[in-house]
Amino acid sequence: MHGVRGTTVRLVAVAVVMVVGAGACAFAPSQPSAAGANPVPVSATAGTGASGPPDPTATATPVTPEATPTPEPSKTTQKPKPKPKPKPAGCPTGERQRDVETALADLGSFGPITVDGKQSAQDCKTIKTFQQRFGISPAEGRAGPTTANVAKRIAATDPRKCKAGKGLTFCVDLTNQTVLAVRDGKVILGPTVTRTGMAGGFQTPTGNYKVNFRNIKEWSNPYEVWLPYWQHFINGIGFHETTTYIHNGAIGSHGCVNLLPADARKLWSLGKVGTPVHVYGRRPGT
Question: In sequence order, what DSSP letters do the residues of the chain get, joined into one string?
């Protein structure tokens, strides 16, 4: 009986996914709402947890003054010299030092940097600033593979490919996995990082769309997760704050355009129902 019941549950789960459709991060809205509307989600559960207090340690037996008489101060006793403070560790040099230096020098907006393949205090500061901006962890100034990948993608993003018209347009560059907001030909947000639909039928579709539904916090029925700063534009697909580490390239979304928290909030503050969305290019590996 246990085996039959388990099979039935799995069949029901598969049927639910087939009804939702591949690539849908959330059910497409039946009726668009006004900008900034906050419809009540269907359901949500939240769990909490906290660690218990540490185990009490054994209480040491007090020592009586009789057992340990206080020595009289000696005139010849010298005060111990203070230990020297440890010097801060140097900023580590990464295996992609020159690649990162080249990309950040091209961008020119994160601080001075010298393209010589050698780490310096200023190079470290500039790389840290870049890492902190794009949520790269740890942000320690080391020019590793993730930092090099993100820096090269940002530097390679060409706003002219956005082909935005008058007014505000949200652009998604699938090739470089970046997002921009352009108003009257001027970039007002980005390029910033994104992670779009993965292979296996979840690719983010290219085309020209419009934001037709917004919710400050949308509940995804298919995947049972909150989607903060949700801006829907086609078939259950939209912009929202990432729910995982955005630089994990081994995974992807189910079609949605994932954003860092700060970028999701900014895009939300700029957008409204009717904002044009232009998606172009192709995510590598899909």
Answer: -HHHHHHHHHHHHHHHHHHH-TT-SSPPPSS---TT--PPPS--------PPPPPPPPPPPPPPTTTSPPPPPPTTPPPPPPPPPPPPPPPPPPTTHHHHHHHHHHH--S-----SS---HHHHHHHHHHHHHTT-SS-SS---HHHHHHHHHHHH--GGGG---SSEEEEEETTTTEEEEEETTEEEEEEEE-B-B-TTT-PPPPEEEE--EEEEEEEETTTTEEEEEEEEEETTEEEEE-SS-TT-TT--BSS-EEE-HHHHHHHHHH--TT-EEEEES--TT-
